[in-house]
Amino acid sequence: MNNTEYYDTLGVSKDASQDEIKKAYRKLSKKYHPDINHEEGAEEKYKAIQEAYETLGDEKKRQMYDQYGKAGADGGFGGGQGFGDFGGFGGFGGGQGAQFSGDLNDLFEQMFGGGFSSDPNRPRQGRDLQYRMNLSFEDAIFGKETTIKYNRQGENGEQEHKELKITIPAGVEDGQQMRLSGQGEAGINGGPYGDLYVVFYVSPSKSGFERDGSTIYSRVPIDFATAALGGEISVETVHGSVQLKIPAGTQTETNFRLRGKGAPVMRGNGNGDQIVTVYIDVPKKLNKEQKKALTAYQETMDGNSGHHGFFS
How do beta strands 176-180 and 85-89 pair? Predict the structure, then answer.
């Protein structure tokens, strides 16, 4: 079975590594995010990118997709393991609503039209549901408590209006999901309820931060005098402003590490780091005194090395 749609969506080959898939996803997700790209069709493209990565970003879901296509990728195997199980990337391709409950016989019946006998009166787990939640860059880093509302099918087949208070863990990333055990649809023949999967979609930072896991990246301009003579500058982090010492002779595009100023480490302790890249901000306009000072500097450089230009 030749299943390439998700690979085509992310612009990668079927033999792409997980790292290549992740890089392609991050690039496209940022390009087509609705908060950044307001062109017609961008939102649909963004949703397709999310759907593709929810499957290809998880090695087990990717294997099922490669073998069985979307029907296999949408399987969602596994029973209920406790409230608040957090991990992986989705594997739920569609929008909010019922999904496959995780029974192998049901999976093959859906894909191949039957052929596997089973007791129709056996207890069966209810269908899983998916809830898509938009988060700000900061909420994804620090977490928060919030209330979600959704509909599900109850034990008697009626629609129930659910209101659920949940805690979003600090440090979640775009595309990750949190499973809420037993919060899906009612089971059949007395079977257990399905699960609810909350999938997170994180908006780009409005402060210019980039993020990769627990590491945060930022770019900060410095003037020529600070780069040449050294000094101290104020740098914004998600945790507040800090002072950064700039050594004399710092070159443009030099990186500095601010330890512990990144995002929380998932399933670990403490925070990651922030990588600050400084670049020299060349002034577009100079007053007479500034021009005179730089001209004098350039003349000393010309006399010493024969090079021309102020950054030579």
Answer: antiparallel
Distances (CA, A) of 190 to 21, 145, 155, 161: 41, 32, 8, 21
What is the distance between the alpha carbons of residues 93 and 58, in angstroms, rounded to a whole number? 13
Residue 51 contacts residue 5 (beta carbons within 8 Å): no
Contact 191, 125 (CB under 8 A): yes
Q: 16 and 61, same structural domain?
A: yes
**Is the model's pLDDT at 109 over the cut of 70?**
no
In this predicted structure, what is the pLDDT of residue 70?
Answer: 76
Closest CA to 136 of 238, 18, 271: 238
**Considering the entire predicted model, what is its pTM?**
0.63
Which of 203, 221, 241 terminates a domain? The answer is 203
φ, ψ at 56 (rounded to 5°): -70, -25
Indicate the average pLDDT of the chain. 82
d(CA 3, CA 7): 8
Question: Which H or E element spans position 180?
Answer: strand 176-180
Q: Are residues 101 and 45 in the same domain?
A: no
How far is C-alpha 169 from the geometric centre of its chain's CA atoms?
14
CA angle (64, 67, 69) in 5-degree steps: 75
What DSSP element (H or E) covers 140? Answer: helix 137-142
- Token representation of residue 236: 């914004």
Question: Residue 280 in contact with residue 221, Cβ under 8 Å?
Answer: yes
Q: Total domain count for the chain?
A: 3
Structure tokens, 216 = 């945060």
3-state secondary structure at position 305 = helix
> Which of 170, 203, 236 marks a domain boundary?
203
**Between these two residues, 273 and 290, which has the higher pLDDT value?**
273
pLDDT 10s digits, 43-76: 888 888 988 898 898 888 898 888 878 766 665 4
| pLDDT at site 2 | 58
